[in-house]
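Task card 7
Instruction: Convert sequence to structure tokens.
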Amino acid sequence: MGRRIGQSPARGLDAGSGFTPLRAFRRMCDVSASGRAARAAGMRMARACGAVTRAMAAAGLLACGVTAAAAQGLASEGLVEVHHAIPLPRGTQLDVVVSRRKDAMPATAVLLFPGYPGILRIRNEGGSPAFDLGGNFLVRARRHLNAEDVFTVLVDCPVDQRTACGDAYRSSPQHAEDIGRLVRFVRSELGAGQVYLLGTSYGTVSTAFLARALGAEIDGAIHAAAFTDPRPGRNSHGTAMAGFDWAVAGVPQLFVHHKDDPCDVTRHASIDKQRGRIPLITVEGVVEPRGEPCQAYSAHGFVGREKATMQAIGAWIRTRDVQQVVSGNP
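Output:
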């Protein structure tokens, strides 16, 4: 199934709930939103503002479609991408997308766990693979981590977890068993000599618990915009991270966090206190931030610093060199 991936954009951590026509129009054009969410925003905008806005919304959606398509193509620029379906013993499957530079033979794999909800829904559309969450930092910036010696693996939630893929699963032995199976596949079938985990935002719930559970099965774990201050409440996600002891994991770890992360559950000051002796790369500056504080195109998602951030991660993977401050793109 060696086809190029076509992506669908998707939501960031927190979509926000207030509606205004301006917010709706921005939602239509935000490639971090899902196609379904963008269409819904356009329809709400039309209902709220009448016939004139209906015409504007139709034109806007057409223009946004061109913008989103361009962004999606850029995310996979220079990559050869393949969809693999990993069968799991309980009768379901784990879908992944493997990305490599053209003509490269990399031996280091980095498994990518995107932010909330982490459900990529990897599938085939019109004979070509497709997936959601196209606006997520790890998804849109994966080309910057791929190199002659490194390839990436976008990790979906198993099919039987696609209704939630929440804390209970991410912190469970089942999750560790599923990803352990993937690690063995990546080593035996894809030729990886080293395997790292990289999560962002809600994806760090996975990387945090997996670093503990998998131990020597992996070579290290990177936590970007790590979950530090989960909200209390019945419907909150990330509560498994309350009081989490990062030092328990017996593998090399790295934190990557934006100095001005505006998201109240992923505070830079909190991870600086919680990290202990685990190294931290601090990212500074943004370019054209937009969306809610916990969405993918704010400082929370390293907007405008994608390339430099990924290159700093790559340097740590290769040499354990820690670039303490990332302040611009090369």
